[in-house]
Specification:
The chain has 230 residues and is of the alpha/beta class. The chain is built from nine helices and eight strands. The protein is 38% helix and 17% strand. The protein has an eight-stranded parallel β-sheet with strand order 7-6-5-4-3-2-1-8. The two termini are 33 Å apart. The mean pLDDT is 93.
Length: 230
């Protein structure tokens, strides 16, 4: 077993242990490998280890990787902030877009999804603990956004994505409560199945609170080299 395989297995062991502790099945938590700044060759190696879902933050870097790895059946997630002028590439090239926090963004993604493609999976990003430095809509804006986005033809609204401040584990519980509140009134409840929260440093607390998707980078790939990013 090589280093990437070992690190991936260690993360799975973490997921399984916390799931056992809170009486959940490990299969209820999806592992999203956050691969920003890491080269395509590393992604290919992680794919060989069994990983299929990869998350990218930087659009141009991600588009290059999608092109270089088009022979692999990768599920691509965009998890960075979504700008209006980038929605066309996101709509055409990705399977999931996290970080949708305005109706206009969801509308553009729906309009720009190519004919014949399946609906684009999206998550609403919520600024769950009111950080000035974080993107995302306010919790009290979510219900209206859900109603609006659910009417769009070419997107599939799957749930919420949050990035609380470090060590603010109480925010995970708040996100779970909001997720369940929306679930009770969602127009397509069978689609509302994703609570994307938790990263390398806090995935255990996030899973204990109800996360269904953890976004893990450092624990899988090691420290990032941002100097390589132009």
């Amino acid at each position: 077993m090589n280093l990437l395989q070992q690190q991936r297995q260690h993360v799975f062991n973490q997921i399984e242990q916390v799931c056992q502790r809170v009486n959940r099945t490990a299969a209820s938590v999806q592992l999203l490998a956050v691969s920003k700044t890491h080269p395509s060759s590393t992604l290919r190696e992680m794919y060989t280890a069994g990983q299929r879902s990869f998350g990218e933050n930087y659009l141009q870097e991600a588009l290059a990787k999608i092109d270089e790895l088009q022979d692999l059946e990768i599920e691509w997630h965009f998890i960075g902030h979504v700008q209006r002028n980038k929605t066309k590439h996101l709509a055409e090239k990705f399977d999931w877009v996290h970080g949708v926090d305005r109706f206009i963004i969801a509308e553009r993604l729906s309009n720009q999804r190519l004919e014949g493609q399946p609906p684009l999976n999206i998550c609403i990003q919520v600024n769950i603990d009111g950080q000035d430095s974080k993107d995302g809509c306010q919790p009290d804006e979510v219900a209206e956004l859900v109603q609006q986005i659910s009417q769009l033809p070419n997107v599939r609204l799957r749930g919420l994505m949050v990035i609380p401040a470090p060590e603010n584990h109480a925010a995970f519980a708040d996100a779970k409560i909001l997720f369940e509140q929306v679930q009770s009134q969602h127009v397509r409840p069978e689609d509302w199945d994703t609570l994307s929260m938790g990263m390398s440093a806090d995935l255990e607390a996030a899973i204990a609170a109800g996360s269904t998707m953890v976004r893990v980078g450092t624990a899988l790939f090691g420290e990032r080299d941002y100097s390589a990013k132009s």
